[in-house]
Structure formats: structure tokens, C-alpha cells
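Please annotate the following for my students:
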Amino acid sequence: MSTSPSLEDRHQGFALAKVGDRVHEDSDEGDHQHSVAWVDVVRIAVVAFGATLVWFHVWEPFARVSVIGITAAIVGGWPIFREAYENIVERRMTMELSMSLALFAALAIGEFFTALVITLFVLVAEILEGLTVARGRGAIQDLLNYLPPTASVRRSGEVKETPLKELAVGDFVLVNPGGRVPVDGTVIAGHSYVDQATITGESMPVEKTVDTQVFAGTINQSGALEVRADRLGHDTSFGKIVDAVESAERSRAPVQKLADRLAGYLVYFAIGAAVLTFLITRDARSTISVIIVAGACGIAAGTPLAILGGIGRAARQGAIIKGGLYLEALATIDTVVLDKTGTLTFGRPEVRKVVTARGIGKSELLEAAAIAERRSEHPMGKAIVAHAQTLGLPRIEPQEFVSTPGRGVAAVYMGEEILVGSRSFLRQRGFGSNSLTELSGIEGDTDSEVLVSRAGKLLGAIHVADAVRPEAKKAISALKAMRMRVILLTGDQRSVAVAVARELGVDDVGAELLPDAKLKRVEALVSDDRKVAMVGDGVNDAPALAAATVGVAMGSGTDVARESADVVLLGNDLLKFVETLQLARRTRRIIMTNFSGTLVVDGIGIALAAAGYLNPLLAAFIHVTSELVFILNSARLLPPRQTA
């Protein structure tokens, strides 16, 4: 039974104002919610003392009326009576109303001790329930611990500790080793490694030097950094995560509304059964027992607690679910549609293999290619330059540079022409087929090949490919083990898409698709009564994300994708999506267990009470115990508390 405010009423919000301004206020508030209010302790003490006096018949000036019993019952039951009255005014049928009727009926027939013990049961259960729900609130409020309350700011040559609410864009913020970054900004001085797993999901610390970006809520691990504040409060990556969780916490899933309706129906059923019991048996004690034993509070309180716990645990695991509606929808998913680039692959080409012509060294080949591609904006060109740098080859600028889109580049260095491009590009520049055949063919269907020549001499070929993420195959295997149909939709070439799908074990492939074609494929699946989760990271995925049953954006994707999605993964690990699906299914199982368990307990309890096998005390014990069992069942979803 729940006489305390609902989860929505308890909601105090994560409104950041300027994020850190609320950290300590909300933290103190969360600690208070985990404590027991003194008025509750006094009320329990009054009821317990009154029950003791009634049991020993202390000071009963009236033969049939216990002044102490009535007074203690009114004092202890006041919260129940008040909420029952409020529910009547709002025309809502709740357990508070039926329990109030039972208590008044017990007092009316002289069952004063019974009434007090029932009240005591309910008050103790209420405190336990409140502590459990407060833990659910605290699990999400732990997010606020990722920001410090103040920041060290350099202004006019002086460094001063400043509350986050007083920071301004452009301020210079100092972050010491071990400290948390309070803003999204750009490093202007210093060198360090920053743990940014909370924002990007990266497992290893990321090196930060001048002109690199840092995010609010991340941990500076080694050196001191000076950061120019670019975004504050709600505008930071962290602020948007907290806003999303705050909104999700307030939302109500369809199953939660169903729980509220079922709780009301059970109250009607209990009162109806009590009336029928009295008409048949004329036994007031059995009638009161029928009203007392029926408890829908395990559903009414357990369902939102389960949803809150699921959202909180998902956030802890690296997935921001934007509402209970989407948590429930995830539990029904039977089809997963995946984008390729940035989702299954890294989204950046890498050099996979270097094939040299006879008598040519790899360093000679890569140095020439890097010179020609130095000014190129093509991803393949950037990949070649990056690979050359990792090998320690010198950074050399060409004296001339010409790019032919879709074919290759030509550059001049030290009077020698360097060509980097496709076989057809080199043929066009005078290389015959015989000279090109000595090089091995393309390494794989997912690779792209560029040939390199210098001063009219063929040096060799470089194979570049967008590498598949190492966790992708494991994630897809897990999805198929969950009986999911897995589909790959991409704008890439069919040969590349088919090769990736074959490597990962995808069921179906759609390639060379523009955004509107992706959208139509997803809409067709939804119209075919499939429950579709679309996973993507780019602007071109946004329409399909919005059309799917649940849209899931990779955390490193575009802002458009993250805004269009219902679930945002922190980082690019597809296994987090699998874990989120499993969590959603577990949440639904727990809620359904509470539903069926409540119906069974209430049905058996009402039958036994009507038959005279349960007295009011035993009925109250069953009511309170079953309620706590279902609430604790939901509480299993809550993540463990952790400190910053």
C-alpha cells in the first residue's frame, strides 16, 4: 500500500540551471529522501504505544470504547485517511480508500487492537517502500556526482574557485589531475589523458593536448589542463544526457498506466467481495479481512519503480533511454536494422595492406603516397597520410596538387610527378595493363585499392578499408540468439555491404540506399507488424530512426541522429545495445511477475478471508508482506549506489 507521494510527486528534477548549481542541493535532497522523517517515527511510536496500552487494558474509562485505541488509530492513520479523501475528491479508487474503510469498520466493531496493529503494519511498510523508491531516485541522481560544485577559473590573472552557475562562455578553467572537467571546452594549455567513458563510452583514456576537445563530467587523469569554456550547463554533452534522463524519469509507460487501472479494478473487486461476504456470512470480521487482504500496491508502486530502475541501470551501463515508453517498446523488439558506417564499422578508412612493386620498399611507397595526399580531403587520402605518420615518415608538402574527384590525385615534388589513384586513373596517365598486372588484386571485397607511381615508375598499391568493429560480430550473434531478425541498410556499394553482412552473419542486406530509401524500408517493416529497432549514427539515418518502433543512436554520431533517436548509446559499442535490450526484457518480466503474483495473492487471500480462515491481523500481514515482496522484486533492477 502506498500512502506516500507517487514517483512523479517525488520528482524534484535534475534541472541543472547551470548544472553544477544544483549538484549539492540535489545530493542533499537525495540523502534526505533516504532518511526517515521524524514525524513518521513519532507516528509509529504513538501507534505502537497505543497498541500496548490497549492490549493490557490500561485506562479504559468506557466499557465498549477505547479512547486510547481510537486516538492512536486516528493519529497513526491520518496520512491514509487524508489521501483517501483526496482520491475521493479526484474520483479515483485506490487502496487508501479501502484501507480507510477497513480501519473505521474495525474501530466500529470494537477491534481496537486489530486496527492499531494494521495501522502499524501499514506505516512500517510505507517507510520501507519509501526508502526503496528513494534508492531508485538516488540511482539516477548519481549522475549529478559527475560534476564538481565549483571550478577553478583564471580571470585577470587570478585563479578563483567559482560556482558553476557563475561561469561564462570563454572563461579559462583549470582542471587539476584527478579532477572532473566542469565544461565542454577546448584545451588551450597543458597535456594529459582524460577518462571520458561517461560521455563517449571509450574504454581507454584519451590524450588531450592544445586545441583538443574535452567534455563536462570526464576525469582528468594525469597532467594539469587549462580549458576554454565553449558550452555550459544544458548545452554540454553531460547536460543533455541528464536532461534526457530527467525527462525519461517523468514519463509514464503504457504498462504503468495499465498498472494504475488494474489497481483501481482490484479495489472495486475487494469492496464488492466484502459486501458479498457480509451479505452471505453476516460476519463483520471476515468482511473486514476481505477488504484488508486485497492489496494492489505491489503493482501500483512496483511498476514505476521497475521502470525507474531499468532507466537508471541502462544509464549506468551506457545507454540513455528517453522514457518508460521506449523501455517498454524495447522489450517487444523482434527486428534490428543496422546502419553500416559508424555503427558496424569505425567510419574511418584504414590502411589494411601495402603491396610493393619489385625492388620497391614500403617506406618509399608510403612516403610518395603521403606527399601526394597531403592536401587531399578524401577519407582514403587522410587514411594514407595518417598511416605514414604512425610509421614516423616525414611530413612533406607537395609543390603542386591536382585532385580528380572519384579517380585520384596528381602532385609534383622535387620536379617529379606522383600519381595516387585507381587503376583506370593510372591507365589514363599512360600506364599499360601489363605493368599493372604484376600487382596483386584487391585484398578483399571490403577493401578499396589505390595505385602509386612516381616519376613514371609504378611503386605499388595500397589497400584501404573501413574496418569492422571487433565487438560487432559478437553483438549480432547475441541478437540472433535473442531470436532477432538482423538487417543491414547502407548507402555503401553492394559488394562492400554484402561482404560485411557475410562476415557478421546478418540476415538481410540493403545497399546503395539514400535516406528516403532507408526510411521506406523501415516503414515497410513497421507496417508489416514488425517491432523495429533502427541503429544508426548519421544525418542520413535520422528519418529512419524517427520512423522505427525504437530509434537508437550511437553516441559518437551526429546531433541530428541523437535528437531523432529514442535511445542514445554512450560511445560506439553495439554490445551496449544488446545489454539494453536484455535489460528491457528483464524489466518487463519483473512487471508481469508482479501483475500475476498480485492477482494470485489477492484471489486466494479474498477467498480465505471470506471463508473465515483469515482474521484481520493475518489479512494485514499478508497484504503488507506481499506488497513488500513485489516492491523488492522491482528493486532488483536498481543499480548499486556509487560515488563520484
